[in-house]
Amino acid sequence: MVQDTPIIELANVDRSFSGRSKTVEALRDFTLDLRDGEVLTIVGPSGCGKSTLLNILARLEKPTGGTLSFRGVDAEKSGVQIGYVTQSDTLFPWRTLLGNVEYPLEIRGVSKNVRRERAMSLLERVGLAGFEDRLPFELSGGMRQRGNIVRALVYDPDIVLMDEPFGALDAQTRLLLQDQLQRLCAEERKTVVFITHDLQEAIALGDRVVVMTARPGRIKMIRTVGLERPRDLNHIHEIPRFQELLSELWDCLRDEVLLAGQGSGK
Ligand SMILES: Nc1ncnc2c1ncn2[C@@H]1O[C@H](COP(=O)(O)OP(=O)(O)OP(=O)(O)O)[C@@H](O)[C@H]1O
Ligand SMILES: [Mg+2]
């Protein structure tokens, strides 16, 4: 029975923010299901409600309309575990890399040996062994971002939310991290919602790609990527299906980016 129940079910979700003088409608009528183990990537113009959507999924914000369920249970009552890599780097500056990655296990009362083993195993898998005793300021941006990602995975959440995790990185580092992420998520069988402003990244990493409209954010298009896994990210751009999707999705996204740039869609 539970097999076919989506792990995430958003039904007609709206989110508005009431200010002193006006109300901003961030999301409108957002309806979407995710299956267990699916990687959903989302693109959309700046300000269209992508982070708001992740905040709702993380249960940090409540929808002003519609419903959210996890495995058929209302989000408020669901015990589903969620890992969140937010848009800004949130490593604690006073803790070492290892101390940061262990933190979610520490607050869950996991014993020192177990948490050390789990944290070290993840750090090794993203090439950070040897850096565990460094403080965040001693690490590069790419290293810190890997730290943020493994910290979100360390307590084995059912769902992982990522908000433009590679946005600030150079192209080579981004490719390396994309590859590490796809391996890690496949090994750990995670359901992932991944926001990016990079359409190529959205296709390379996603099972499905969602294009959002300019604000208020709605779903404009959903496409199934349909490329085999594991994917060779160095050469994925040469595959005709990739090119075809890129062109179709860009045609769809471009109009929304222009609209957002003109300050429309308020
Ligand atoms: N707490 C808040 N209070 C008031 N308005 C908010 C709040 N959070 C978001 N908004 C507004 O909601 C809209 C969507 O914001 P959001 O951060 O979700 O966009 P985004 O798609 O993530 O943009 P970006 O790509 O730039 O990160 C914006 O107009 C923003 O000003
Ligand atoms: Mg955002």
- CATH topology heading of the largest domain: Rossmann fold
Largest sheet: 6 strands, mixed
Share of residues in helices? 25-40%
Please write the string of helix (H) and strand (E) elements.
EEEHEEEHHHEHEHEEH
Description:
The chain has 266 residues and is an alpha/beta fold. The chain has 2 domains: 2-80 and 158-261, P-loop containing nucleotide triphosphate hydrolases (Rossmann fold, 3-Layer(aba) Sandwich); 89-157, no CATH class. It has helices at residues 50-57, 97-107, 112-125, 141-153, 171-187, 199-205, 240-261; strands at 8-18, 23-34, 39-43, 65-70, 73-74, 82-85, 159-163, 191-195, 208-212, 219-224. Strand 7 (159-163), helix 5 and strand 8 (191-195) form a beta-alpha-beta unit. The longest helix is centred in the C-terminal third of the chain and has 22 residues, at 240-261. The protein is globular and about 50 Å long. It starts with 7 loop residues before the first strand and ends in a 5-residue tail after the last helix. The mean pLDDT is 93. The structure holds adenosine-5'-triphosphate (ATP) and magnesium ion. Magnesium ion binds at residues 50-51, 87, 163.
